[in-house]
Write a structure and sequence with these properties.
Elements (H helix, E strand, L loop, with lengths): L1 H16 L5 H14 L3 H19 L4 H22 L15 H9 L9 H15 L7 H15 L8
Helix pairs in contact: 1-4, 2-3, 3-4, 5-7, 6-7
Length: 162
């Protein structure tokens, strides 16, 4: 499949940089991409490009139509570039599981790598409790989660990591 995407990419780049674009060829290419692509974003971009590319093939003298067709080709090419760009790191790796303390810090909106005092924790708790309290329109579960996060940070040894 990557070979096919690479050939589409080369053809699209050739079409975009040509002095006069062969809109019939561009329409056929977009139809092929829409029919054969397994990526939904690429398929949708190609499907949306087909009507304007066909219109440009019939009326290549209309400047606004050719500009719109050029833009649609650019969108399809951008999607292909996104699919073929090198990705760094481990692919399909699950994100690192957070500890109870890290989850509590995120819940309270506190930074992960900073030493916290009890006052910092209480301030963050009070700030969020004002908006999350059930009497102020917040949900009961969100308020309980907030209180649990405060407890985890104030008494770190009392709670085991899940």
């Amino acid at each position: 499949m990557m070979d096919r995407i690479e050939s589409w990419k080369l053809t699209l780049e050739r079409l975009r940089t040509a002095h006069t674009v062969d809109w019939d060829e561009a329409g056929r290419l977009a139809a092929e991409i829409a029919r054969a692509s397994t990526d939904t974003t690429l398929r949708q971009a190609a499907e949306q490009a087909i009507p304007i590319l066909r219109q440009a093939a019939h009326d290549s003298e209309a400047h606004d139509i050719t500009v719109a067709a050029q833009r649609r080709l650019g969108v399809v090419l951008e999607v292909i570039h996104g699919l073929t760009a090198p990705r760094f790191g481990r692919r399909n790796a699950l994100p690192k599981k957070l500890t109870n303390e890290e989850r509590a810090r995120r819940t309270l909106g506190l930074p992960l790598a900073v030493q916290l005092t009890c006052d910092d924790i209480h301030q963050a708790y009070r700030r969020l409790a004002k908006t999350m309290h059930p009497d102020r329109g917040g949900s009961e579960q969100a308020f309980l989660d907030l209180a649990a996060a405060r407890d985890v940070l104030i008494h770190p040894g009392a709670h085991k990591d899940a």
